[in-house]
Amino acid sequence: GALFAPAERDGLSMADDNDETETLFVWGCGEDGQLGLAEAPVSHNRCALDWHVPAPTILALPDGDTVRSRPRYTPTKAILAGSRNSAALASSGALYTWGWNSHDTLGHDVDDEWIPRPRAVAAVQAASRRAANDDAARSQTSRSQTSAAAVTGDPSDPSDVACASLGGWHACAADDDGALFAWGGNEYGQAGVDTGTAGRGVHVSLHLSVPELVPFPGPFDGLGSSNRLQIGQVACGGMCSFAVVRRTGEVYTWGQTVGSEKEPARSPVRVPGIRGVATLAAGMFHALALQEDGRVLAWGNGDYGQLGLGRPGNEDTPTEVEALSRAGVRTVAAGGWHSAAVTAGGVCYVWGRG
Length: 354
Hints:
five-stranded antiparallel beta sheet, single chain, four-stranded antiparallel beta sheet, 40% strand, mainly beta, 1 helix, Methylamine Dehydrogenase, Chain H, Reg_chr_condens
């Protein structure tokens, strides 16, 4: 079998290698290092080796690491294609990113504008460990224990990255514990972390050079355990982000709300009237949700028909795509201004800007 992640001008694909890992193939335009094949640093504003790769070529991850065969929380993708950058979830539990690093989208806290080869985002696993320590520390505090020595944890043993998504110029990832982290552009609050200052009635946010924990609702219950929401899926749009809660399938969003001229949400807010989501996909300014009962919902910008509602224009609230009501949809995907759905019978529906 194969998985394919569409990108703007480059291709990524996985082909079965054995029961545990996958072989990663790349092809197409790699002028910004998004194919990950360049051996030398970027020069003359471009990568010398992978400007144009006309046929699928194997891309090996560093240190013998391999692309994850079966993501822990289906339908999480193990390979991700951004507009001019790429990422992969590895069998080691690491997240690798490469390509154009504008707004620190790749999460490496470096000044390099391009990362021409896959590089592990060490900071996301370190942030995961800090989040686990913070939860444990607060748990100890709630039990009136004063010693913090037992909750420091081992920074060399962080939680694995379970899922990730690349947005316009930001990224999100959740770990095995369901904690969510974000980095990159945050001018519209799409990273979900308030890093700005207010002045003259205008809120200015900065970009995040390394992954930071996204503060989700969830107070401690007073018995020493955290009720923080556990995230099972993430999807990044152009200037916003989405997350699906594992147990309930509820959806949260933040950033510049799709299909709305409301003020950006600087922290996660629940999308009303929707739960039981099996798969979530985000385009540049629209979103799709496949419900556990097989219904497909769409909302956001619909100027190019990407919502599939039979009419142009925006939709502020999740609305059923009636044309797919009896199709038996099993998964959905969203590009910049187009959408797709695949049925149990292998039929692919597409709509939007063509």
